[in-house]
Amino acid sequence: MRLSRYFLPLLKETPTDAQIVSHQLMLRAGLVRQTSAGIYAWLPVGLRVLNKIADLVRREQDRAGAIELLMPTIQSADLWRQSGRYDAYGPEMLRFKDRHEREMLYGPTNEEMITALFRDSVRSYRDLPRTLYHIQWKFRDEVRPRFGVMRGREFLMKDAYSFDLDEAGGKVSYNAMFEAYLRTFAAMGLKAVPVRAPTGPIGGDMSHEFHILAETGESEIFYDSAIEDVDVTDPEAVSKLSSIYAMEAEEHEKVTNCPVPAERLLSRRGIEVGHIFFFGTKYSASMGLSVQGQDGKPVTPQMGSYGIGVSRLVGAVIEACHDEDGIIWPEAIAPFKVGLINLRSGDAACDVAADDLYAKLQHAGIETLYDDRDERGGAKFAGMDLIGIPWQLVVGPKGVSAGVVELKHRKTGERHELSVDAALEKLGG
Amino acid sequence: MRLSRYFLPLLKETPTDAQIVSHQLMLRAGLVRQTSAGIYAWLPVGLRVLNKIADLVRREQDRAGAIELLMPTIQSADLWRQSGRYDAYGPEMLRFKDRHEREMLYGPTNEEMITALFRDSVRSYRDLPRTLYHIQWKFRDEVRPRFGVMRGREFLMKDAYSFDLDEAGGKVSYNAMFEAYLRTFAAMGLKAVPVRAPTGPIGGDMSHEFHILAETGESEIFYDSAIEDVDVTDPEAVSKLSSIYAMEAEEHEKVTNCPVPAERLLSRRGIEVGHIFFFGTKYSASMGLSVQGQDGKPVTPQMGSYGIGVSRLVGAVIEACHDEDGIIWPEAIAPFKVGLINLRSGDAACDVAADDLYAKLQHAGIETLYDDRDERGGAKFAGMDLIGIPWQLVVGPKGVSAGVVELKHRKTGERHELSVDAALEKLGG
C-alpha cells in the first residue's frame, strides 16, 4: 500500500483524553477514532490488525472442530425472558423498542439465541456433540466507557457454545476450547495465563479466564511459577495448567491455605482477553432444549460458552508490546510485515529503487506499507516506529549508490545493510 | 466438511410463511433462520455464501483503489443533526437512548459518519482523492419486513464514499465505482443492468441502480436491448452503459418521448442489488468538511456514495439461479465447490473409497461437503440438489468395483462416470 494514497491519519500529540498507553497509541497511530463514548471506527490499519486477530481466532476454532455461523446483533427481549435473564441483566444491556413497540436489545452475548437455534434445529443424539461459534459485534452499555477499545461499548467478540450429551462430553468440549485458547494466544506471540474464575452471572460449575501479562494490566493475578514451564503444544498442557494454582487477587485473598510455596507464588498484572464457562443444563433446561437419546429417552444437553474479546485484544496486545516510540506488533498480527521507506522521495534514483523494491515485495506477497510521500526521513522513521511494523526497509541515496538497503527490526532495533536480494530472502520472499 | 459433524438443518416442508422462492429455499437449505421479524441468523452454509459474496465485493473495491475501514453500527443522533437528516429520516431509523439518556441510533447508512471522520482527519488537497468503504451490518426498521433477507431489517451492506477536489474528479470516482460494480456482478456470474435512478433522500445529481434480472424480481425495468451487447470488460463499458436507456417502470412511465425504438425496448423484472450516488457537496458543506487547496484556499470536497446489498444479494442470486429441485449456485460464490456423496455409508469398500476421495479433495484444496451420514442415497441426492453445490461426486458400490465415480453438474444435470484421477483433474485438483 502506498501511503500517499492511503488513509492513515497519525497524531503528533498524545490525546489528553486517553489514559492508558494502548489507547494513546491506537489514536496516535491512526488505528481507531472514537465516534461516540466507547464506540470506535476502525481505520484501515486498525481494521487490518482486527481482521488478523479474528482470522487467528477463527483458525484455532476451526481446528478444534467448532463450526462458524453468524447471529444478528439485535435480539428480542422475549428470547431473554425464556432463560429468565432479561430482568436479571443490568443496565449494561442496551434495550429499546422497535417501531411496533416490540422490546428488543443489542446482544451483549448469545447463550439464549444459540440455545433457541439449536433447540429448533436438532432432534437426535446423532446431532451432538457440536460446538458452534460466531465473531460478531456486541454492545454493553458501560456506565463509564474508557481505556479505548479495552472497555468500549460496541466491541467484537468471538463466542462459542458447546452442546454435549453428558457431563463427561461437556468437559471434553470445554478442554478442547481451553486448548484452542492456549494455541490462539501463543500464535499471537503472547503469554496467556489461565486463571480459575468464579462463574458469575452466566452461572455454572467451571470457568477459566485467560490473562495476558502486561505491566499495565487492569487486574492482579497470583500464580504458581510452575505455569511458566508448561509448553502449550504439550498434549497434556490443559490438564497440567488446570491443576496449577492461578487466581485473580480478589479470589486469591479468599484462599486461606494457598497451596503454593511462597517462593513459587508470583504476582503479576494481567488483562483478561478470554473467558470460558461450563454451565451444564442452565440454558438447555430453562429454554426447553432436548434431544432424543440413543435409548429413545429425552436428554437435556450439557452446555458451555467460550468468549474471546477480539477488539479488546488489539488494545491488550499493545499494552504488552510497545516501547516509548510506539507499538511493536507481533509479526502474526501486524498490519503489514514491512514498512518501506523512501528516504528521499523526489530523487530520481531513490524513487526508481524504492518503486522497484515495492514491486518486488508485492510480487513476493509480502504485505508492505510504502512511505512514498514527500516528507522528511525523520518523520517517516518516527511514523513506522509508531505504527509498529515489524520490519523497516530503508532506501536512501547512499545505499542506492552502494547497491544496498537498510533493514531494521522494530523489536530489537537491529539494523543491517544488505543487498535487495538478501533483504527479500530474509523477509521470506 | 463432513456432514455428520456439521450443522446443516434442512427442512423437508416448504415453510408456509415464506412467500418468495429465495426465502423458501434459504430456509429449506439451512442457510438462515429468522430470530425476530426481519432479523436472521446465518447458519454455517449461509455464512459461507455471505462471506464469498463479501470477499468478491471487497476484491473489486480494492482493485478500484477504495480503502477498507470499519465504522460501528451505533451512531449518535447529534451526528445526524449536523447534516439535518435526523429529523428528515422516517421511522425506518431505529432510534433509542442509552443509559445516560443520550439519543443514539442503529446506522441505516454512513454518509454523516464518514464525512465527520474524514473532516477530522484530513487538512490538505494532498489527502484527496480518496474512496473509503466498509462492509458492516445496518438496520432499517421496515414496517413490514418480508421476503427473507431481501427485505430484512438487519442487513449487511458494503457502502463506499468518495471525496474529490472538484466535480470532474468526483465523476472519475463515480465511474470507477460504476466499473467496479459491473465487475463485481459479472464475477458472481450475474447479469446486472445499470438503471438511471432518481436520487431520492440521499440527494444529488447523478445516480444509478444495478438490477439483477430475475423473473421473480420485485421491480419492472425497461431498457434498450443494446445493453445486452456491452462487454463489461470493455474499458468503454461504463461510458457505453451510462448512455444507453434503462429505467425503472415508475420513471419510464414519466418519459414522454422514449428514445428507444419499440423493437429494441425490453421489459424485464429485476432486483436492485446496488445503488450509486454522486451528490456533490451536500454533506461536506453541511458538516463543515473543507481542505486547503493547492492555491491555499479552502475547498469543499465533492462526494459520492456507493452501496451494495451484500446479504440481499444472497437472496437475489437464488431468485436468479434455481430450479424446482433447489438452488444452483454460481461457482464463484458457492458454499462448497463439490458435494461428495457416499451412496452406501457403512459398506466398508464405499467408506474407504469415499474417505480416500475426500482426503484427496481436501489435499487439493477443493472445498467439499462430504455426506458421510447413514442415510438413503435418495435423501443425499435431494439434499445436494437443494443446497445447490455446483458439482456432485458420487461414490457407490458398483462404481467402487469398477474403479469409477460419478460426477454430476448441478446446473446442466449432466452426469459422467470417470476415474477418480480424471474427476480430480476436472475439478481443478
UniProtKB/TrEMBL annotation, chains A, B:
Keyword Protein biosynthesis annotated: yes
EC number(s) recorded for this UniProt protein: 6.1.1.15
Annotated InterPro entries: aa-tRNA-synt_IIb, aa-tRNA-synth_II, aa-tRNA-synth_II/BPL/LPL, Anticodon-bd, Anticodon-bd_dom_sf, Pro-tRNA-ligase_IIa, Pro-tRNA-synth_IIa_bac-type, Pro-tRNA_synthetase
GO CC terms of this entry: cytosol
Entry similarity comment: Belongs to the class-II aminoacyl-tRNA synthetase family. ProS type 2 subfamily.
NCBIfam families: PRK12325.1 (NF008979), proS_fam_II (TIGR00409)
Job of this protein: Catalyzes the attachment of proline to tRNA(Pro) in a two-step reaction: proline is first activated by ATP to form Pro-AMP and then transferred to the acceptor end of tRNA(Pro).
Protein name as annotated: Proline--tRNA ligase
